[in-house]
Amino acid sequence: MILLLPLIFTAPLPLQEADPVTKSTHVFGRVMSDFTLSDGADGSGKGAEFRRVRLGVKGDLSAFASYKVELEFAAGDEDDFNEGGPVEGDADAIFADVYLKLDRLFPASLTIGHFKEPMGLDEMTSSRFITFMERSVTSGFSPARNHGFMLSESSDELTWQAGYFYDADAYGTGSDADATSLAGRIVYRPWFSNRGESLLHLGAAWNARQGTKTIKFYPGTHAAPSSESFILTDPSTLGLEIAWTRGPLSFTAEQMSAEDGITGNTASATSLQASWFMGHQHRGYKTSSAAFERAQGADGGAWELAIRQGSWDFDDTGENDSGSALALGLNWYLDSYTRLMLDSTQVAPEGQEAFNVLAIRFAYDF
């Protein structure tokens, strides 16, 4: 953390140069209603749940300061935050993003609060804009949300993010001074135009953690059986990411590897994905977060086809667990804010019988 402080305080505060900005407040939210229709494992997982129900406010405080306060009301989203959240079935709302962001005061933007540590393209993409109902298997390696601060800067060509975080529960409380992480991510774009209509994204991320990290992901749906989770101690994690878009066609590839700081055991995962809009729409992209955003051109409706292959290998951790998942997706955009998603996934854990998961999501945001 001390190494980052000179980057914050190396420039004078240009308060006298600021244009007046009216204080603003915008209410926003999202709802995702999931139905798992079938699986061939042990019959568990069928049913319905609210995967996410969020409500928040965001806005500007001044020319230099903006804020976001977002709460999660669906117990189905607890695993997207950390291992310290409420127990299953807890009815309390929990924190999603709760932060203050300062721009133009320092050489880089400074974000302080509870938000995602920078790692992984699919993980950094909002759940409103991911292509499948669940993120890729590589996202299980990402630290998700914790309490800390992050410096960041972006242009059309380059985005970088670096932060220091305390492991926190779902209410942003981190009481263990020895459970911290140093995180960094950099993305280079050789070309980028029209909010992602033409894009080449090349990224890398690194995370050094003191404490434990649970790796867990959902290759089918959140309700269906998942791969067996496991815990690494003092892990170092490296991530690589590539994305290419040309109009309605998009390809992404990610690879994650983590090494236990005590035993030296390693775990890894890889994801390959392709998607295609059946019209003139394309995936949106935001340079400030170096992640995909709302589909462009879908105001009048759109159809999207997608395929994804994921694999994981935990054998070197002593868990003797590896496998793969092949997913097919069909997304119907009624408009830019309302989407019906249909996913069919074949999950093949090594040494076990493969099973299929069929699920539907009704999602909207405002």
CATH superfamily assignment? Porin
Q: How is the CATH topology named? A: Porin
Mean pLDDT: 88
Report the sheet with the most strands, covering strand number, pairing sense and barrel closure. Answer: 16 strands, antiparallel, barrel
How many whole angstroms does the radius of gyration measure? 20 Å
What is the CA–CA distance across the termini? 37 Å
Low-confidence stretches: 83-89
Number of strands: 20
What is the name of the CATH architecture?
Answer: Beta Barrel
Structural shape: globular
Q: Which structural class matches the secondary elements?
A: mainly beta
Strand order of the largest sheet: 1-2-3-4-5-6-7-8-9-12-13-14-17-18-19-20
